[in-house]
Design brief:
It is a single chain. By secondary structure, the protein is of the alpha+beta class. It is about 20% helix and about 35% strand. The protein has two helices and five strands. Strands 4-3-1-2-5 form a five-stranded antiparallel β-sheet, with helices on one face. The protein is globular, with a radius of gyration of 15 Å.
């Protein structure tokens, strides 16, 4: 029986979840609220429970860039957009130089709440 916990598992693919909350002030913003899946391909294995602040920042930047490429939001001030890792912890952009950790970010679109891991949806 495999007893490896998610925060201890090493991975070169990482699912990130974008959570968009808020009330749109423009009709174009309707339907933006929800959870979105962004799959990141990484240049090296990471252990989810041991990610540094710099790595979290790089992950958040790549996930948000992919999200914004696919979801046009005119007025960002009306939304709170968060990047959550598979274990439910937040990743936030910071003032770090990129290290080439993220090779690719693939946007998989909006998820139904049933497809969002419980650790992420709370």
């Amino acid at each position: 029986m495999n007893t490896t916990r998610i925060e201890d598992a090493s991975t070169e693919k990482l699912n990130c979840y974008i959570q968009a909350k808020g009330e749109p002030c423009e009709p174009e913003g309707e339907g933006i609220r929800g959870f979105y899946l962004i799959e990141l391909s990484l240049s090296r294995p990471l252990v989810l429970g041991s990610i540094s602040d710099q790595e979290r920042s790089e992950i958040a930047t790549a996930a948000l860039d992919s999200f914004h490429e696919h979801q046009g939001i005119e007025d960002l001030d009306t939304f709170r957009i968060s990047v959550l890792l598979e274990d439910g912890t937040k990743a936030e952009e910071g003032a770090y130089e990129g290290t080439g950790l993220v090779l690719n970010a693939e946007h998989h679109g909006e998820l139904s709440i049933d497809d969002v891991p419980l650790a992420v949806s709370g």
